[in-house]
Amino acid sequence: MYRRSAFWFLSFAISVLLISCSSRRDIDAHATEYTIAFGSCNKQWEPQPMWEQIVKNDPDLWIWTGDIIYADTEDMDEMKAMYDTQKSNKQYQLLKNRCPIIGVWDDHDYGANNAGKEFAKKAESRDLLFDFLDIPSKDPARQRQGAYQSYEYNIDDILLKVILLDVRYFRDTLGTPDGTMLGLDQWEWFESELKKSNADINIIAGGVQFLHVDHGYEKWYNYPKDYVRLLSLLSAPHVKNPILISGDRHIAEVAALTHRDQLITEVTSSGMTHSYEALKRETNRYRKGPLVTVKNFGLLKISNHKVDIELHNEQNDVLYRHTVMLD
């Protein structure tokens, strides 16, 4: 597996050159194994020992799946200071100096708990998120509303596509007839990204859980038409090996269902600085393995024929491993 910082620098340079002509940044990893680390729910003022453990796993890519900071404010100067606090964290710098970082928000870094399209400062907040992620000014994602993005990575003979969905900027108020999570423009973009995808693995990331139907918190199933539309889209024959990653819940779990003969897998990793340890039981009809209620981060270890999904605690112990065989 490639692990040299010089190559990462070259890859980043190539991605910058491609931005002007593509909505995606292509990084040719030429690796026999590729490790994606991801997590969410990170209080910027708390101790953050997770980063040292994450770096020990030698990740090739980090994906934020929301609540990068806990801002909950309409004061954009205050929000910027919070992002600056996180970005300057010495432990976080260990990761930032090691591998590319991409990501999308959830509610607390968006600006208000459980907020949707009604949030008054969403445009300004989006720009601060993209500044934190070092997304260049000419990136196509900067030219549209919302925080959704897509990327492609070549891993030896595997093409990996990562789609980051924004479940805040366009989201209708819960209970709105025919309400939507993504809004018209993002739905059209998402469908186009998958329609033209010839990736061997399609990773779709977003703040709230995709597959869960049983709990009473924020989830895709609260918007039934979008939930059905999502499953239909992901089960299209040309969409190979869809893997969903999410955060939000301060717990971790792996879930899977088969829809129209397509296996759809989701891994939730949430609670890097705090977790829902008081939660002992929660029904999830699609869960595989345990419900994890301690602080955690996730890994996807991709090789030629499989993806190993791992959930790790703050001591870097593997709490659960689930393997997806590639079609």
What's the overall average pLDDT, rounded?
A: 92
- What quaternary form is this? single chain
Q: Which structural category fits the helices and strands?
A: alpha/beta
Please name the CATH topology: Purple Acid Phosphatase, chain A, domain 2
Helix amount = 10-25%
Intertermini distance? 22 Å
Provide tags for this entry.
8 helices, alpha/beta, Purple Acid Phosphatase, chain A, domain 2, 327 residues, eight-stranded mixed β-sheet
Fold and architecture overview:
The protein is of the alpha/beta class and 327 residues long. It has one domain: 4-Layer Sandwich (Purple Acid Phosphatase, chain A, domain 2), CATH 3.60.21.70. The protein is built from 8 helices and 14 strands. The strands form 2 sheets. Strands 1-5-6-7-8-10-9-11 form an 8-stranded mixed sheet. Strands 4-3-2-12-13-14 form a 6-stranded mixed sheet, with no helix packed on it. Mean pLDDT is 92; it is low at 1-28.
Briefly say what this structure is.
This protein is α/β, with parallel strands linked by helices and 327 residues long. It has helices at 5-19, 50-56, 76-87, 90-96, 107-110, 122-132, 183-195, 224-234, and strands at residues 26-28, 34-39, 61-65, 101-104, 149-155, 158-164, 201-205, 242-246, 252-259, 262-269, 287-292, 297-302, 306-312, 318-325. The longest helix is centred in the N-terminal third of the chain and has 15 residues, at 5-19.
Q: What's the structural blueprint in terms of helices and strands?
A:
Layout: H1 5-19, E1 26-28, E2 34-39, H2 50-56, E3 61-65, H3 76-87, H4 90-96, E4 101-104, H5 107-110, H6 122-132, E5 149-155, E6 158-164, H7 183-195, E7 201-205, H8 224-234, E8 242-246, E9 252-259, E10 262-269, E11 287-292, E12 297-302, E13 306-312, E14 318-325
